[in-house]
Write a structure and sequence with these properties.
Layout lengths: L1 E8 L7 E9 L2 E7 L6 E2 L3 E5 L1 E6 L16 H13 L6 H17 L2 E8 L3 H9 L3 E7 L7 H15 L5 E7 L7 H12 L6 E5 L3 H9 L3 H8 L14 H8 L6 E5 L5 H10 L2 E4 L1 H6 L7 H6 L3 E4 L12 H11 L5 H15 L17 E5 L7 H5 L8 E3 L4
Parallel strand pairs: 1-4, 1-5, 6-7, 7-8, 8-9, 10-11, 11-12, 12-13
Antiparallel strand pairs: 1-2, 2-3, 5-14, 14-15
Helix pairs in contact: 2-3, 4-5, 12-13
The protein binds zinc ion.
Length: 401
């Protein structure tokens, strides 16, 4: 057992405690409250908060760091990204794994305690286990042709079952996006999810204006790209509605689906998301890099939708620091209270990923995965400081006894 005090404790589930203390035992939180000045360890001018939750990343794309430049529009980012992935050769495997391993280490060093990782290759599963980084891994399926979807999903399920899930690492299934997944594949994935625990899933939704155009009219750059790739499905007809309406009508959306991006969401979409109890994962730095604009974050919060944050992959962001992501969120949403942003980056993400009983807040019984941020002299509003961009060298982990 160890008792640790700090000038600020941020339980997230409750208001910050000035002059606070936490008691930890065997990797769990025993209690949290005010300091009595007799703790085993005093961290002084530090803010202790739960480890951050990166609710959306693609670790397997870490090797693309710095290779796909910022673009003025989404398809101008997608095309070089697809070309870079296609150019990858079998001999690159070690380099790809090495880049993902370093990305996990950096995420941990900058205070991340849990990730939601989207993968096509499933290579990240072993890397996350080796690094003891808790995760919900989403085995992502693509296929616009809509053929043999049951076989595709049952093969994916067999692969997932072989990998196994445990308390720290769970593997689930996820469709990529409305422009890359046929309605029949969405339906087959939904059927599979309903038969399995955990049911948590995720989907990229309303990221670009081109996606919205594609669903509204069946035209535009996405249609062109699908045709050029030779995967256009002649049976597919535009639903003439928004991305949220489309997937809700198909029956894919439930409260267990994390909708990622939502840059193009309108008020009615946000109403629907809230009614479904869904969590919206925002990745504002990536959105800017790939040319889709900034998400309407203030509207997300004003509409009372549950918001989490993710970095997305190193193909579209400079680093996997959630503190950097929070700084971009603060920049584009100055009216959202810092406390709400911090809750998004911790408890909301953990809950959405199905880890809310163990991560995301400082409460008795939860994991002692706590981050200490050394606060510079002169800072009076600690919550605001934490969303202003924190240097990695100010971040450390509170060692649990
Ligand atoms: Zn993504």
């Amino acid at each position: 057992m160890i008792r640790v005090s700090a000038d600020w404790i941020l339980p997230i589930a409750d208001a910050p405690i000035g002059g606070g203390a936490v008691t930890l035992d065997q990797g769990r939180i025993v209690s949290v409250g005010s300091s009595d000045g007799r703790e085993d360890l005093s961290l002084g001018r530090a803010a202790v908060l739960p480890g951050l939750v990166n609710a959306h990343t693609h670790l397997e794309l870490s090797y693309l760091h710095g290779r796909i430049p910022p673009a003025p529009s989404f398809l101008e980012w997608v095309r070089p990204m697809l070309a870079a992935r296609a150019a990858r050769s079998g001999s690159d495997e070690a380099a790809i794994a090495g880049a993902a391993r370093r990305a996990i280490q950096f995420a941990r060093a900058t205070g991340t305690s849990l990730v939601g990782d989207v993968t096509n290759t499933l290579a990240a599963v072993a890397l996350l286990r080796d690094a003891r980084m808790p995760a919900c891994v989403f085995h992502e399926l693509l296929g616009f042709g809509g053929r043999h979807v049951d076989e595709q999903v049952s093969a994916a399920r067999t692969t997932i079952d072989k990998l196994g899930s445990d308390d720290d690492l769970r593997v689930s299934l996820a469709p990529h996006a409305p422009y890359s997944v046929a309605p029949a594949l969405f339906t087959a994935i939904r059927r599979d999810l309903d038969e399995h625990v955990p049911m948590v899933s995720t989907v990229h939704l309303a990221e670009s204006p081109e996606e919205v155009e594609f669903l509204r009219s069946g035209t535009g750059p996405w249609r062109t790209l699908l045709e050029q790739m030779g995967v256009w499905n002649a049976d597919w007809h535009a639903p003439h509605c928004s991305p949220v309406e489309y997937l809700a009508d198909i029956g894919f959306l439930t409260g267990s689906v994390l909708a990622v991006h939502g840059v193009q969401f309108e008020g009615s979409d946000l109403d629907r998301l809230r009614a479904l109890g869904m969590t919206l994962v925002s990745c504002p730095r990536s959105n800017r890099h790939v040319g889709v604009g900034s998400p309407p974050l203030e509207a997300f919060y004003a509409m009372d939708v549950d918001v989490a944050f993710g970095t997305d992959s190193l193909a579209s962001v400079d680093d996997l620091s959630m503190f950097s992501e929070l700084a971009e969120a603060r920049r584009i949403a100055p009216k959202v209270p810092a406390r709400a942003l911090l809750r998004s980056a911790t408890l909301t993400g953990a809950t959405a990923l199905g880890f809310g009983d163990a991560f995301g807040s400082i409460e008795p019984g939860k994991r002692a995965a706590l981050v200490a941020v050394h606060v510079p002299d002169g800072v009076t509003d600690v919550e605001e400081y934490l969303v202003s961009g924190v240097d990695p060298d100010r971040i450390s982990w509170v060692e649990a006894a």
